[in-house]
């Protein structure tokens, strides 16, 4: 099987639909080849949140040794014979989203000539800024601005975890960054782990999302130096449940009780009384249904031949030349175009999604001055850009430059075509984020619906770019550029 030796993702414990061989796949890849059967396969994600299980790496003997070593380092008596061990899996909600921050730089004239942090809001007693050089800020203080404040917007990928099970003494409320790099396997709704108990999920995804949103809103008025964050908003939140392994170790006769991490073996809790919420005393709740992953043959729906084993949302079949889109919906009418390079040379054809929207939305994203011919096509990169700020800038510049690019129908696959890493539905969400950024800079805090767009049509166009030093430069206008390092590999 194809084994991907990377630190992120999870193992998919399913078999090849062709030969039944076990498959291993990571979360950020949905296409692979079966080395036994030779077919190209594709991972299909469920519509409802899936659940994954972190494999326990420690056994009872290791756990007891690590507990005794910790007790010895603390000068405490070692564990007695007759210990009982219970392996259980505690659930956490894991959220992946795009975090938008609207920041404002505020300046004021001070007696020492040094600009300091200022604000015209009352923060109450929540924050206290000491009297440093140039003066400090006191809650409720009236401060005069020396000029208009500068507002900027930043975008970043955001991941967080939150406990999904009932409150249990000694169990952490989150698992931190480990949810990003540990290996996992899918949780099956119909089959549990014979060696451990699964704690039920008592918090719905809606409740978890509300908690995630509130935790970010608390930080909305934090300020550092002469800058403060005016707004934090989450876009495109996606949830999944991660079951994390723990060992409950109890001495006979109601003695000491220990909770150990089943992945690292670290002792995380010690108590002298029996916990109120032991794994075998969980209240009965209705089992939550999770989405299950599936593996299907990666084939053209028109002629049935295998599609290329590359990660892409759009393909042009090499056999029947039909356009295959993995995103369902009627907005994309299979229109694929390309802009021919004006001269010979080494170029790469990068995909961009085009959405037919209102001219006001296009003008806002492209920042076109008055008097420029109006357009109703908004361009969004169809390839994944690791730096979301670069993605937003590229969306702005390509939307403004789009009228200067010619379009020709792409009737066959060109080896210079780069994979379409982003489907049209995700690209439409990114377009709304870019539009929201421009509106938030001008109008401040707005509801997410203020940037909602309803595209009439979606098309795909490949634009020629040539590598020059550290950047890609379009070969048509020699104007649109983006860093080579910004592409997510």
Characterise this structure.
Helices cover 15% and strands 29% of the residues. With 489 residues, it is an alpha+beta fold. Strand 13 (314-316) and strand 14 (323-325) form a beta hairpin. The protein starts with 30 loop residues before the first strand and ends in a 6-residue tail after the last strand.
Biggest sheet character: 9 strands, mixed
Query: What pattern of helices and strands is seen along the backbone?
Result: EEEHEEHEEHEEEEEEEEEHEHEHEEE
Q: Judging from the principal axes of the Cα atoms, what is the shape?
A: globular
Count of extended strands: 21
- Low-pLDDT runs of 5+ residues are 1-9, 109-148
Radius of gyration: 27 Å
Mean pLDDT: 77
Furnish the topology, listing elements before pairings.
Layout lengths: L30 E3 L6 E5 L6 E4 L5 H14 L10 E22 L44 E14 L14 H4 L2 E3 L10 E2 L6 H13 L5 E2 L2 E24 L6 E5 L5 E5 L22 E4 L16 E3 L6 E3 L6 E7 L9 E9 L2 H8 L10 E5 L6 H14 L6 E2 L14 H20 L13 E12 L2 E4 L6 E3 L6
Parallel strand pairs: 3-9, 4-7, 15-19
Antiparallel strand pairs: 1-2, 2-12, 3-6, 4-5, 4-9, 8-9, 9-10, 10-11, 13-14, 15-18, 16-17, 16-19, 19-20, 20-21
Helix pairs in contact: 4-5
Q: Which tags fit this structure?
A:
disordered N terminus; 7-stranded mixed sheet; 489 residues; 2 domains
């Amino acid at each position: 099987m194809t084994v991907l030796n990377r630190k992120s993702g999870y193992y998919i414990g399913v078999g090849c639909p062709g030969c039944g061989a076990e498959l291993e796949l990571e979360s950020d890849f949905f296409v692979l080849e079966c080395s036994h059967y030779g077919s190209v396969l594709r991972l299909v994600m469920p519509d409802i949140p899936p659940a994954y299980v972190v494999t326990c790496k420690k056994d009872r003997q290791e756990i007891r040794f690590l507990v005794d070593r910790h007790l010895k380092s603390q000068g405490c008596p070692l564990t007695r014979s007759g210990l009982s061990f219970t392996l259980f899996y505690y659930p956490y909600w894991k959220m992946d989203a795009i975090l938008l921050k609207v920041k404002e730089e505020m300046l004021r004239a001070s007696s020492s000539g040094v600009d300091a942090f200022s604000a015209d809001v009352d923060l109450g007693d929540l924050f206290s800024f000491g009297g440093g050089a140039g003066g400090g800020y006191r809650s409720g203080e009236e401060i005069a601005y020396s000029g208009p404040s500068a507002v900027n917007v930043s975008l970043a990928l955001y991941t967080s975890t939150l406990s999904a099970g009932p409150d249990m003494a000694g169990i952490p409320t989150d698992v931190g960054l480990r949810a990003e790099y540990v290996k996992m396997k899918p949780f099956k709704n119909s089959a549990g782990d014979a060696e451990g108990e699964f704690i039920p999920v008592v918090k719905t995804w809606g409740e978890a999302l509300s908690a995630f949103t509130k935790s970010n809103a608390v930080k909305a008025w934090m300020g550092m130096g002469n800058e403060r964050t005016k707004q934090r908003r989450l876009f495109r939140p996606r949830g999944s449940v991660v079951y994390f392994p723990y060992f409950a170790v109890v001495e006979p006769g109601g003695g000491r009780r220990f909770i150990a991490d089943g992945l690292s073996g670290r002792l995380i809790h010690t108590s002298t009384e029996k916990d109120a919420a032991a794994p075998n005393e969980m209240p009965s709740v209705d089992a939550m249904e999770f989405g299950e992953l599936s593996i299907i043959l990666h084939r053209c729906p028109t002629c049935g031949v295998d599609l290329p084993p590359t990660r892409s949302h759009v393909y042009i079949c090499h056999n029947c030349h039909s356009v295959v889109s993995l995103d369902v919906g009627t907005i994309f009418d299979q229109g694929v175009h390309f802009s021919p390079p004006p001269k010979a040379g080494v170029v790469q054809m990068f995909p961009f999604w085009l959405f037919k929207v209102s001219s006001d939305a296009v003008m806002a994203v492209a920042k076109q001055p008055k008097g420029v011919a109006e357009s109703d096509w908004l361009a969004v990169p169809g390839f994944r850009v690791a730096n979301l700020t670069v993605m937003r800038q590229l969306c702005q510049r390509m939307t403004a430059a789009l009228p200067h690019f010619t379009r020709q129908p792409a009737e066959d696959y060109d080896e210079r075509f780069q994979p379409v890493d982003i489907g049209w539905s995700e690209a439409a969400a990114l377009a709304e984020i870019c539009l929201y950024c421009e509106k938030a800079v001008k109008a401040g805090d707005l509801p997410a619906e203020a940037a909602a767009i309803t595209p009439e049509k979606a098309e795909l166009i490949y634009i020629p770019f040539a590598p020059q030093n550290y950047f890609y430069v379009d070969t048509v206008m020699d104007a649109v550029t983006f860093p080579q390092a910004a592409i997510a590999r």
